[in-house]
Design a protein that fits this description.
The protein is an alpha/beta fold and 347 residues long. The protein contains 12 helices and 18 strands. The radius of gyration is 20 Å and the shape is globular. The N and C termini lie close together (10 Å).
Amino acid sequence: MRATFMYGAGDVRVENVPDSVIKLPTDALVRVTASCICGSDLWPYGSLSPADGPSRMGHEFIGVVEDAGSDVTTVKRGDLVVAPFTISDNTCAFCREGLHTSCAHPQAGFWDGEPEEGGQAEAVRVPLADGTLVKLPVAADSALIPSLLTLSDVFGTGYHAAVAGGVNERTRVTVIGDGAVGLLAVLSAKRLGAEQIILMGRHQVRTDLGREFGATDVVSARGEEGIAQVRELTGGHGTHVVLEAVGTISAYEQALGIVRPGGVISRVGVPQYEEAPIGFGSLFRHNLRLAGGPAPVRAYIEELMPDILDGTIEPGKVFDATTDLDGVPAGYQDMADRKSLKILIKP
């Protein structure tokens, strides 16, 4: 079979590898019918040392179950399934609390931690198949596949930002970042009833989609200028919630400048820093709170899927290009160059 590897910064290759196979009775073997490149994949694409490669790539996929271990009961051969970006048993104490990203099972973890598996491939061995995989009630060629694929990560991540931030019909919201997660954070804030949603982004094609998803205002400026514009839009106070979908220290500092006293900064952009202002002059003085983290998207799939199935929402609009495996290396470069928002892969 063929699979995608990252050997170092800017060096992505699609290579032949041994077929994925069932190893444990709790495994399932899934033939991938749709996957994608994630914005978070661009961090190693820009910085991975060759000494740390090669890494198997891809943590978002839909596929058909080709085989299942003897202990698997929730999916069977022929089922179309979606896989969250984390592996979990869906039964431990943390999973029962909706925190699948902290699953206590020894086999649980992120797909990026599975050295011999990845979603940007023709097939994947899925550990803890009963807990990880969710059956989809459509065919593999359904027009809904792009939107259903967002349940594996970006829609669930944007939704987690909004839920963790406490977004509701009484909140004003700012979203920092016009990537796929930021745009779906806008959609999520709209779904939760936010009265004002300010999207901070500077790519018009993306911010136009953000308006379609529910943004009431767009601010293209960054830094102090951007902070001033958001405050002007909010009577000088800032917004109750800031959904930070970038992950840089500058985005965090921008969030600090925008959030209203007593408000919440909810971060789902993978932080590229370990130290940030949290003291008296930043968070403490005005009772500001930090929330967010890796999204337990498995907890949200059943909640979000019905709105996709009935056409109420179409999060799959974040995909603006499609490729086969041969086009994956160029797809990484296109996303890094901001020529594409998010690339759908059909192996």
